[in-house]
Amino acid sequence: MIEDLTVRTMVRNRSLARAISYAAWSDFRSMLEYKADWYGRQVIAVDRFFPSAKLCSHCGALAEALPLKVRTWTCGSCGMTHDRDVNAANNLLAAGLAVSVCGAGVRPQRRTPGGQSATKQKAPRREL
Ligand SMILES: [Zn+2]
Predict the structure, then answer these.
(1) Position 124 in a domain
(2) The pLDDT of residue 11 is above 80
(3) How much is the pTM?
(4) In terms of residue numbers, what domain contains 38?
(5) CA–CA separation, 75 vs 50, rounded Å?
(6) pLDDT digits (tens, 9 = 90+) for 99-120
(7) Residues 61, 35 share a domain
C-alpha cells in the first residue's frame, strides 16, 4: 500500500524537495507496480487527502493540525502517544486492507492453470 502524494506540492517544500527529487518517486512507483504484478500482488494507492498522519490509529480521533516537524504526538481523545510515521503506516495499512476486503479497485483474479477449479474434487467414498 502506498500513499498517492502530490510530488509537485511536496517538492515546493524546501526541506523535502531534495530527498523526493532524488528518490524519483514516479520511477519507484512504476517499479513497485511492475514487481507486484510479477508476483501476483496488488499495489493499492491510498488517496492523497486521507489524513494518514493526523488520524489516531488507536481510537480514530483526528488531530487538528500536525506540522511536519512534530515527530511524536499524543492523541487528545485516548491519550495514546504516536510516532508520526508508525501511526501513518498503521493507518495506511488499515485503509489499504479495507479497499482490498471491500473489493474496490481490485483487479480480476488470474485464472488457474488449465482452467481447472482451485478446489479439489472429492473422490467418491468406497464402502467396505
Ligand atoms: Zn486516540
Answers:
(1) no
(2) no
(3) 0.61
(4) 1-43
(5) 18
(6) 888 765 433 334 444 443 333 4
(7) no
What are the distances in angstroms from CA 20 to CA 14, 32, 127?
10, 16, 69
For the chain, how many structural domains are there in total?
2
- Residue 13 confidence (pLDDT): 73
Question: What phi and psi, each to the nearest 5 degrees, are found at residue 92?
Answer: -70, -40
Question: 99 C-alpha vs ligand 1 centroid, how far in Å?
Answer: 23
27 Cα to the center of ligand 1, angstroms: 35
- Quote the ligand 1 centre to 66 CA distance (angstroms): 14
Distance separating alpha carbons of residues 85 and 52, to the nearest angstrom: 9
